From TrEMBL, chain A:
Keyword DNA repair: no
Residues of the NADH:ubiquinone oxidoreductase chain 4 N-terminal domain: 65-118
Domain NADH:quinone oxidoreductase/Mrp antiporter transmembrane: 123-406
PANTHER family: NADH-UBIQUINONE OXIDOREDUCTASE CHAIN 4 (PTHR43507)
Membrane-spanning parts: 6-22, 29-48, 68-96, 103-121, 127-147, 159-178, 198-216, 228-251, 263-286, 293-313, 319-342, 363-384, 396-419, 440-458
Location(s), subcellular: Endomembrane system; Membrane
A Pfam short name: Proton_antipo_M
Record GO cellular component, one term: endomembrane system
Protein's name in the database: NADH dehydrogenase subunit M
Family: Belongs to the complex I subunit 4 family.
Listed GO biological process terms: ATP synthesis coupled electron transport; electron transport coupled proton transport
Signal peptide boundaries: none
TrEMBL record, chain B:
Bilayer-crossing regions: 6-28, 35-55, 67-90, 102-119, 125-144, 156-178, 198-222, 243-261, 267-285, 292-312, 318-338, 364-385, 397-419, 440-461
Organism encoding this protein: Sphingopyxis indica
InterPro entries xrefs: NADH-Q_OxRdtase_suN/2, ND/Mrp_TM
One Gene Ontology term of the molecular function aspect: NADH dehydrogenase (quinone) (non-electrogenic) activity
Protein's UniProt name: NADH-quinone oxidoreductase subunit N
Length: 515, 476
């Protein structure tokens, strides 16, 4: 049994065990299983050969007759799997005291979710990928529906049906691809050249599915509902990992498999991303519900990701990947910040808080750090991603870069405004005064999240290095179809071009600032 | 003649076994439940063994009116297995004593279905269909003191007779314009000029058969009959006769009407889409779980018809695979329904009464959730796989718009399945708690089928594909 199969099996076995034990033991089993998976993830990362073969840890077993149990990862998948296994133990810890009803089922659902998420990122067979991709709906439906807030039923149905409707079209496109190429093997499909007119249809079908998962404006409306109603750990995993499946699908399937259609239809992505950045940022600015605010900010961040991906160049795609990782850590942390005070006061209404810096200084510190990371302050993970992706977008289109740049400014506005209302101000309300600072368990969750957010901000090379080769492969695949950008960068050697790109980016940033 | 008899062992065993069971019931009386139940189960098992023994034989018997082939064998095994389960689970349901007519009627219905599955002549088709139908009418009204059951039987009979009439009319037209009742002969005649009379014949034959598979717009009887009939009988109606009628329709379309693809394909496409959409929309708002499952069966028949609409060998393979998974899911879900009883021991059929079921009967609720999600075709449950196969067949037959329409409509269907799961899992426990468990047999069947439909089924895709390909190749 390979390492990847083992990583899939551990949470699955633990999930079954959780159904048959007491609440306390279910928590312990779930925590132990997720920690084991995290340890396995670290082994995976240390044994990953950077610059080696594109696909590593490959496994292949002809179990299903028509398709295969084929696993394997490249650098992008590795980092997303790392994100998953890193967040899962924290999610279990975050639900330690908050979940008191039907704990065994809850933990089982989270562990199944972990299996499914890892499966999505390491599947090397198209049908296997689809099965994992869709299967995620079921545990999330239960998590929102059973342990969610007051309006959880509506949110659970909306989440399920919305994302299902998107996904089914992708299945038809996959069938057509399998028919055309005669294989379900993803690496083979990546090298297959589909006829251009067919690519357009396939691209649109995939886009229908992935845009919903992403989520892109205007099909993002399920996300605020799902986030607001989901329990804290559910929001963490939803924002942290599930939203990355959409972007992963863009990068793994749509761009390298349909390069001509991607170039031809990139304007759709750019237009939707620009609208999303501005519109959802403005919507976030006027929210009274903390979770809703962060949910809208996720949509805005994901829009920068899509724009960065469709810049078709090294910086743009690397930047998008770093935003994905950074957003995975930071938004999970922000949702946990909300969860911490929600557990104490049982409301998410921003107006009910205020002055928390006085009685909860440690909480205020962490919240500050993650707010800054979300805004993109240099030194935090958010900065690296936004810098790189905006540099890449500028190369493709200065107008798109300009509009997406406003997202950074608006992001600062709504996040700082949120922070001011919750943490600063007078501590007047009695029930807020009575709130104790964070507990040891909450420290244990905040510290690793903060450490990773800073690590990614100070030395992003650790995360970029494994992905660089894969991004280069995608960029090379896209190169023949790539339209000329409007930035007119001078062509040069790769080193020089990179330096030039960063200078160009500086201009874009200034332009954004002036605007 | 005697050589022919050697090839129809399954039918002979069923006939003799049915008569013996009938005699047992008559002379031993209704008290000897175990005795005649055992006789009927042994009969079915022996018939299944005979079918397996005949695998590999390709022949026609009785002057080419019946086919002995893998296609019929595949269907017969499914039919016999479903009938077996429906007899095995019945005694507990009929608390005041199961009467001997029940297994006898099911045995004769199974005999009729076996003939349907093997028919390669319009006359044998009709004989098999009517033998099955007559037994089914009586079964529907089996609880003679229950109003709903009598109503179900009457409704089924009246509408069923109408459908038989249409079928016979279509048969007479086909015979009149082609001069033969033999499927192969009809196919040869249809290769030439296509007249209005022939077209009418095709339409009426398909309409008559569509009634039996309860495809929209010939589905009106289904919810009422499913609701009114005793639950074991409903389990039976939803499983075995569906297989028989679907296999028969496949044989007629692929075997007899293949050259007239332009004539039947659009009809089948219409039936498929109408069934998927109406089956999904009609189920929304149903408060009775048996009615809901009735609409679900209409919905699923629509998906099976997509495979048939492709008209290719791949499409027929998909139909067979779908039937197998569908039968397992249907029997499993009805077995769960069978276990739901309130404190007085009365059957619970209302969906709101299931509120919070997962909290006091977690295993049962989990099994039901697996069956429902599988019927909806959500991966990783195995119900996804046959849906994939029918859509693949449709895409490969260049019916992409049909596949897209079907799969989009399947999302509507998902709504009511997850609504039932919501009742079982998200709602608070209701006052009228459901109690009463099943016996070991029922529990085992439910558990095994639920496990098979969760991820384990995927391990059997290879053998399933081999078997269905072998069976389907007979027709091409």
């Amino acid at each position: 049994m390979g390492l990847l199969s083992l990583m899939l099996a551990v949470p699955m076995v633990a999930a079954i065990a959780c159904l048959f034990v007491t609440d306390r033991n279910a928590r312990l089993i779930a925590f132990a299983a997720t920690l084991i998976d995290f340890a396995l993830g670290i082994v995976l990362w240390t044994r990953f050969d950077i610059g080696g073969a594109q696909w590593q840890f490959t496994e292949r077993a002809d179990l299903f007759g028509r398709f295969q149990w084929a696993l394997g990862i490249d650098g992008m998948a590795l980092m997303l799997i790392m994100l998953t296994v890193f967040l899962m133990p924290l999610c279990i810890l975050a639900s330690w005291d908050a979940i008191t009803r039907r704990v065994g089922l809850y933990m089982a659902m989270f562990l199944v979710m972990e299996t499914i998420m890892i499966g999505v990122f390491c599947a090397q067979d198209l049908i296997l990928f689809y099965i994992f991709f869709e299967a995620g709906l079921i545990p999330m439906y239960f998590i929102i529906g059973i342990w969610g807030g007051a309006n959880r039923i509506y949110a659970a149905f909306k989440f399920f049906l919305y994302t299902l409707l998107g996904s089914v079209l992708m299945l038809i496109a996959m069938i057509a691809m399998i028919r055309e190429a005669g294989t379900t093997d993803i690496p083979t499909l990546l090298a297959y050249n589909f006829p251009p007119e067919m690519q357009t249809w396939l691209w649109l079908a995939f886009f229908a599915s992935l845009a919903v998962k992403m989520p892109m404006w205007p099909v993002h409306t399920w996300l605020p509902d799902a986030h607001v109603q989901a329990p804290t750990a559910g929001s963490m995993i939803l924002a942290g990992v599930l939203l990355k499946m959409g972007a992963y699908g863009f990068l793994r399937f749509m761009m390298p498999m349909f390069p001509d259609a991607s170039a031809q239809l990139m304007w759709i992505v750019f237009v939707l991303s620009m609208i999303a950045v501005v519109y959802t940022s403005l919507v976030a600015l006027v929210q009274n519900d903390m979770k809703k605010l962060i949910a809208y900010s996720s949509v805005a961040h994901m829009a920068i990701v899509t724009a960065g991906l469709f810049a078709f160049n090294q910086q743009g795609i690397e930047g998008a990947l770093i935003i994905m990782l950074s957003h995975g850590v930071v938004s999970a942390a922000l949702f946990f910040c909300v969860g911490v005070i929600y557990d104490r006061l049982h409301t998410r209404e921003i107006g009910r808080y205020g002055g928390l810096a006085v009685n909860m200084p440690a909480y205020a510190l962490f919240f500050m750090l993650f707010t800054m990371a979300s805004v993109g302050l240099p030194g935090t993970s958010g900065f690296v991603g936004e810098f790189l992706s905006l540099a890449g977008i500028y190369e493709a289109s200065s107008w798109v870069a300009l509009v997406c740049g406003t997202g950074v400014i608006l992001g600062a506005a709504y996040m700082l405004y949120l922070y001011r209302r919750v943490v600063f101000g007078e501590l007047t309300k009695d029930d807020v005064k009575a709130m104790p600072d964070i507990t040891a368990r909450e420290w244990a969750i905040f510290v690793p999240l903060a450490a990773v957010a800073l690590w990614m901000g100070v030395y992003p090379e650790s995360f970029l290095a494994p992905m660089r080769g894969d991004v280069t492969t995608v960029v090379a695949r896209l190169a023949p179809a790539k339209p000329a950008g409007d930035a007119h960068l001078a062509a040069g050697k790769s080193k020089a071009a990179e330096a030039h790109g960063e200078v160009a980016h500086g201009e874009a940033h200034q332009a954004g600032g002036v605007q | 003649m005697s050589a022919d008899l050697a090839l129809i062992w399954p039918e002979l065993i069923l006939t003799i076994g049915g008569l013996i069971t009938l005699m047992l019931g008559t002379f031993a009386g209704d008290r000897q439940v175990g005795l005649y139940q055992l006789a009927s189960l042994v009969t079915l098992a022996a018939a299944a063994v005979a079918v397996i023994a005949l695998f590999g034989t390709e022949a026609t018997v009785f002057s080419g009116t019946l086919a002995v082939d893998a296609f019929g064998g595949f269907a017969k095994l499914l039919i016999y297995a479903a009938s077996f389960v429906c007899i095995a689970i019945a005694p507990r349901f009929f608390r005041d004593g199961m009467r001997a007519e029940y297994p006898v009627l099911i045995l004769f219905a199974a005999l009729g279905m076996g003939i349907m599955a093997s028919a390669r002549d319009l006359m044998t088709l009709y004989v098999g269909l009517e033998l099955n139908s007559l037994a089914a009418y009586v079964l529907a009204s089996f609880m003679r003191t229950d109003d709903r059951s009598s109503e179900a039987g009457l409704k089924y009979f009246v509408l069923g007779s109408l459908a038989s009439g249409m079928l016979l009319y279509g048969i007479s037209l086909l015979y009149g314009f082609t001069g033969t009742t033999d499927f192969a002969g009809i196919a040869k005649a249809l290769g030439g000029e296509m007249g209005t009379g022939l077209l009418f014949g095709i339409v009426f034959v398909i309409a008559g058969l569509a009634f039996k598979i309860s495809a929209v717009p010939f589905h009106m009887w289904t919810p009422d009959v499913y609701e009114g009939a005793p639950t074991p009988v409903t389990t039976f109606f939803a499983s075995a006769p569906k297989v028989a009628a679907m296999v028969l329709l496949t044989r007629v379309i692929v075997g007899a009407m293949a050259p007239a693809i332009g004539a039947w394909q659009q009809i089948v496409i219409f039936l498929a889409l109408a069934s998927i959409i109406l089956g999904a929309v009609g189920a929304i708002g149903q408060k009775n779980i048996k009615r809901l499952l009735a609409y679900s069966s209409i919905n699923n028949v629509g998906f099976i018809l997509i495979g048939l609409a492709a008209g290719t060998q791949q499409g027929v393979e998909a139909v067979l695979s779908y039937l197998l998974v569908y039968v397992v899911t249907t029997i499993g879900s009805f077995l769960v329904v069978l276990q739901l009883r309130d404190r007085e021991g009365q059957q619970v059929e209302s969906i709101p009464a299931l509120a919070g079921l997962s909290q006091y009967r977690p295993g049962l609720a989990a099994a039901m959730a697996v069956f429902l999600l599988s019927l909806a075709g959500i991966p990783p449950l195995f119900g996804f796989w046959p849906k994939y196969l029918v859509f693949e067949a449709a895409v490969n037959a260049n019916l992409v718009p049909l596949a897209v329409a079907g799969i989009v409509a399947s999302v509507i269907g998902a709504f009511y399945y997850i609504a039932v799961i919501k009742t079982m899992y998200f709602d608070e426990r209701s006052e009228a708690e459901v109690s009463g468990g099943g016996n070991i047999l029922e529990g085992t069947i439910v558990a095994v089928s639920a496990l098979w439909l969760s991820v384990i089924g995927y391990l059997f895709i290879g053998p399933l594909a081999t078997a269905s390909a072998h069976a389907a190749s007979v027709l091409f």
